[in-house]
Amino acid sequence: MKRKVGIYGGSFNPIHYGHVELGRFFLREGDLDEIWYVVSPHNPLKDCSTLLDDNLRLQMVEEALKDEPRLCASDYEFHLPHPSYMWNTLQSLSRDYPDCLFTLLIGGDNWTVFNKWYHSEDILSNYQICIYPRKGDDIDSSSLPSNVSVLCGAPLINISSTEIRERLRNGLPVRDYVPNLTEHAEKEMSCQLARNK
């Protein structure tokens, strides 16, 4: 029987407690064996000027998930052509891991612009998609394709990566927002954000 793996792609710029809690929720409610947090080096729909270093973001994801055996950090997209298109990632993962059945995990905000994604129709035709609605998302579950599901009751945690970066720019602590944050990583984030001003 194939392992059921959720693909949670993102910049994780940086990862925070909300990302981890959402992964736990998907494991409980999404009928998945494990979730791979695929750190994206270049999301084609996002501004890259505020991105922290790829390896620093990956390191923080690894630290945040070190006590979560079924939540895994992945640098898979680091080895694929940039920008990082999810269609290419899913196709490559399916070839490299034929023993796995992949489900794409996305937020309701991403679902509203899903038609702008590269090969969005091919993703819909070939993979399961699980949506976690966010506050203000208006998703009509009755109109979704049969392979797309909405998981209601996802935790709404009032923290964002943007807010964390802003706190760092203002010299404020962020240990309460980023799981298992090391002193070195916190200092490195501050330095990189200062250089990117």
Low-confidence stretches: none
Mean pLDDT: 91
Alpha-beta classification: alpha/beta
Measured by DSSP, the beta-strand proportion falls in: 15-25%
Share of helix, binned: 25-40%
C-alpha end-to-end distance: 50 Å
Taking all Cα atoms into account, the compactness measure Rg is 17 Å
Largest sheet: 6 strands, parallel
| Strand order, sheet with most strands | 3-2-1-4-5-6
Q: Helical element count? A: 7
Q: Tell me, what's the shape?
A: globular
Number of strands: 6
SSE string: EHEHEHEHHEEHH
Tell me what the structure shows.
α1 links the parallel β1 (3-10) and β2. The chain has helices spanning 17-29, 54-64, 86-96, 108-112, 120-126, 161-169, 183-195; strands spanning 3-10, 34-39, 71-74, 100-107, 128-132, 148-150. The relative contact order is 0.19. It is of the alpha/beta class. Helix content is 35%, strand content 17%.
Keywords:
globular
Concise account of the structure shown:
The chain is built from 7 helices and 6 strands, in the order βαβαβαβααββαα.
Task: Walk me through the topology.
Elements lengths: L2 E8 L6 H13 L4 E6 L14 H11 L6 E4 L11 H11 L3 E8 H5 L7 H7 L1 E5 L15 E3 L10 H9 L13 H13 L2
Parallel strand pairs: 1-2, 1-4, 2-3, 4-5, 5-6
